[in-house]
Amino acid sequence: MAVLSGNNWELSKYGRYECSGDNRSNEYIWSIIDNTTTNLSMKITPTLQLIVLSSNNCIEECLDIWALYNCTKVLIRSTTIMFVYLFGKYVRLFRVQFNNKEDLNLCIEVLKLYFSIQFIDDNHEPIDNGDDTNNCLLDLCQEKLAYQQPNIQIRNDFLNQYLTTCLIDPAFFGFVQTTEKTLKAFFENDNK
């Protein structure tokens, strides 16, 4: 399998669903960043990470596709994509809005390789409606997802891509040697 080239798209908005203060209050709001205050972009790297960046390369969001593909929902409405994923007991929501339909369609073609995608037509309530978000969360929480298993199921094509990327990284073998030394020292101390 050939190494995937990275994909990059300019965004007009990025938003994340955050608790508004006290975690026990269960009140959440959308925290929005738009491109009038900072440049925004989303990229999918060759190592299968979905990253949302703002100006000065500040990472707003980072999602490991190969680890979370089976516990992530992708909802699309107009030029907006909302990602909802569960990892352990945590639920995370974020959304991105594209500058144009062309970039959105290019992104959808890439996302379809990794996620199941649900389109919401314009006749529905806006995607940022609290009820829609809560219903989406409820649906996602009720599903029996693979993350509940003691190990994560990784698709073979993801594993091949990830291993290929590791093997061509010149720092990888140094990392392996350091890890091996650390593990040997740990087990030697454990056996004493």
Can you describe this structure?
- InterPro entries: REC114L (IPR029168).
- There is one protein chain.
- With about 190 residues, this protein is α+β, with helices and mostly antiparallel strands.
- The chain folds into 2 domains: about 5-150, PH-domain like (Roll), CATH 2.30.29; about 155-190.
- It has helices at about 65-70, 100-110, 130-140, 155-170, 170-190; strands spanning about 5-20, 30-35, 40-45, 50-55, 60-65, 70-75, 80-85, 90-100, 115-120.
- Strands 1, 2, 3, 4, 5, 6, 7, 8 and 9 form a 9-stranded mixed beta sheet that branches.
- About 20% of the residues are buried.
Average pLDDT over all residues: 77
Helix residue percentage: 25-40%
- The end-to-end span amounts to 45 Å
What is the name of the CATH architecture of the largest domain? Answer: Roll
Largest sheet: 9 strands, mixed
| N-to-C order of helices and strands | EEEEEHEEEHEHHH
Q: Within the CATH hierarchy, at the fold level, what is the topology of the largest domain?
A: PH-domain like
> What's the number of structural domains?
2
- Classified by CATH, the class of the largest domain is Mainly Beta
Low-pLDDT runs of 5+ residues are 124-130, 141-151
Our count of helices gives: 5
Globally, the shape reads globular
Question: Radius of gyration from the CA trace?
Answer: 19 Å
Compute the number of strand runs: 9
Given helix and strand content, the structural type is: alpha+beta
User: In what range is the share of β-strand residues?
Assistant: 25-35%
InterPro entries: REC114L
